[in-house]
Amino acid sequence: MLFNSFEFFAFLPIVLLLYWFIVYKHIKLQNILLLIASYVFYGWWDWRFLSLIALSTVMDYFVGFRIYESTNKEHRKRWLWLSMVFNLGLLGFFKYYNFFIDSWIDMLSSFGYQSESTWTLQVILPVGISFYTFQTMSYSIDIYREKLKPTRDFIAFAAFVSFFPQLVAGPIERATNLLPQFLQKRSFSYKTFSYGAKLMIWGFFLKLVVADRAAIYVNAVYNNVENHEGLSFIAATILFAFQIYGDFAGYSLIAIGTAKLFGFDLMTNFRRPYFSASVSEFWTRWHISLSTWFRDYLYIPLGGNRVVKPRWLFNLFITFLISGLWHGANWTFVFWGALNGIYLIAEVLLFKKDRKGIFNVLITFILINFAWIFFRANSIEQALYIVKTIITSPGRLYIGSGDDIAASIYAVLAITILFLVETKKEYFDNLFSVSRSRIEILRLGGYAAVIFMILYFGVFGKSQFIYFQF
Amino acid sequence: MNIKEYRVSFLKIIKFVIIILVADFVLGSVSQKIFFSQKTGKYARATYAVEKSNAEVLIFGSSHAHRHYVPEVFEKELNKTCYNAGAEGQQLLFHTALQEMIIKRKKPDLMILNIDDSFLYLSDIAYDRLSDLHPYYDDHSEALRPILGLKSNLIDFKLFFKSYQTNSTIIHALRYYVSPQVDYKGYRPLYGKVNSNTKKHDQQEVKEYIEVIEKDFVNALKTFINNAKENNINLVFATSPTYNKVNYSENKSFSLIKEIAGKENVPFIDLFNDTQFLNKGELFHDPSHLNDDGAKLFTKLLADKILEKNLIIK
Question: What is the mean pLDDT of residues A171-187?
Answer without folding.
Answer: 92
